[in-house]
Amino acid sequence: MKRLYIIALLLVFSGGSFAQTAAVYDLARCVEVAIENNLSVKRSLLQKEGASVDLRQSRASQLPSVNLGGNYGYNWGRSIDPTTNQFITQQINFSGLNGNANLVLFNWFRLANNVKQNRLLYESSTYDVEKAKNDLSLNIVTFYLNVIFNQELLETAEYQLESSKEQLDRTKKLVAAGALPITSELELTSQVASNEVSLINAQNTLDLAFLSLKQAMMLPASEKIDIVVPDIDVIDELVALVNPNDIYAAALTTMPEIKSAQLQVQSASLALEVAKADFTPTLSLNAGFNTNYSNAFGQQFVVNPTADPIPFDTDLETQSGESVFGFRQPGTFNDYTVGEQFSDNLSRSVSLNLSIPVFNGLRVNSNVQRSKIAMQQAEITVAEQKNQLRQIIESAYNDAQAAAKTFDASNRQVEALEETFRSIENQYNLGAVNFTDYQVASNNLFGAKSDLVRAKFDFIFRKKILDFYMGNPITL
Asked: Which of 162, 235, 308, 367 has its CA 20 to 30 A from that of 323?
């Protein structure tokens, strides 16, 4: 027996050590995890990063562009020596270096407006990320409240089952004493079984609510989680609701989708100015250099300026036919190195260029028309966003008012049905009413409590939506 006892203890402790402990999440933690894992938020962050790249590139386009180049190759047969431009018939290897720089001096503020446009697009993408996070937060609040709602329904079902079991125990004693017929016990047994089914259904619904929350957080279904149930005082929430016009006015200044749409209009306006700049002349400054080398010109004659001239061996004749003696300056043939050729063949250039657009197949005109259409579309988007925001707020306000009234009526209904059930339960125990009356009163109370829970969380959710559009953080 002692060995069996020790083995049993070991199994209990080992089983407890391998049991998975449920992680506890509050609403803030759920939102944080969801934002970290959500793919839509990650996509918005990447779009913001792309807008940042465009902004940096547009800023850098105002700086001079500098490019360097070089070449190296072989020629054989009849070709031109790149260093002397003379025809030669031999195999040569050649190389060259070149570079150029260009700076736009003026193009009717095209580059500056492009920088402003990309800055607005970057700010707009920042608000798009915020909107993605807000949408996800509202979804998490919905799933979180749904879990709490189904937990309370489960507790109601458990209370209903325990109440039926207690009544069944009392009825069994009364039947055994001969005070009630056996049918009363059988009817209560059926009621207990029905309540057990309701409890199973409530547990399944709660499991589905947890699954939806985990899926929204991008957590695996196998992970055990539990949530913090806050102490929500609905009475404090049942205050006079703020006027929907005031909520709308506040939302216009806080909602990121409105700010993003307005920035898109400003960006489209600057895009129009950028397109119009292509009608105007462009003034730019260019500079460059070029040099080369060839092994065909491997030696050069270096004159000795300090030596006396040496007469030629043959005579020279002038145009008049007179004979003269020629002289040459003495010198030596030295190797013509790569560095010396690059230095001697170096050419430089600086130019000021003016480009005046005359006709380009209506390309610029078409771009201007497209930019005007894009700006009008952006203005329509702002109007749509504002109209959609107003409709959401008005609907949420009406839903909150209706939910408040429903909660108040459900609360009074539960209070009345609790008194009714208490009275009928006492009469049933005394045999004054039949089981049907008792069952109807019990089911009515259970349904009313479920409706009260539903009305409670429906009002809380509607109220939190209004708080969100007022610019308040979403908390429970």
From this structure: 308
Cβ-contact 364, 357 below 8 angstroms: yes
Question: Which of 23-32, 36-45, 324-333 has the lowest average pLDDT?
Answer: 324-333
CA distances from 36 to 83, 104, 193 (A): 64, 44, 45
Strands 87-89 and 78-80: antiparallel
Cβ–Cβ < 8 Å for 391, 299: no
Question: 201: phi > 0 → left, psi -120 to 50 → alpha, else beta; which?
Answer: alpha
Q: Which residues contact 67 (CB under 8 A, 6 or more apart)?
A: 99, 100, 101
161/194 Cα distance (integer angstroms) = 9
Three-state DSSP state, 106: strand
* Pairing between β-strand 23-25 and β-strand 87-89 as defined by DSSP bridges: unpaired
Q: Give per-residue burial for 414-433: e unless 16+ CB within 10 Å, then b.
A: beebeeebeebbeebbeeeb
Q: Compute the residue count for the chain.
A: 476
Got the DSSP string for 345-379? Answer: T-EEEEEEEEE----STTHHHHHHHHHHHHHHHHH
The 10s digit of each residue's pLDDT in 211-233 is 999 999 999 999 999 999 877 76
Residue 406, both tokens: 């429903």
Contact 469, 251 (CB under 8 A): yes
Q: How far apart are CA 475 and CA 227, in angstroms?
A: 14
Tokens describing residue 212: 């939806």
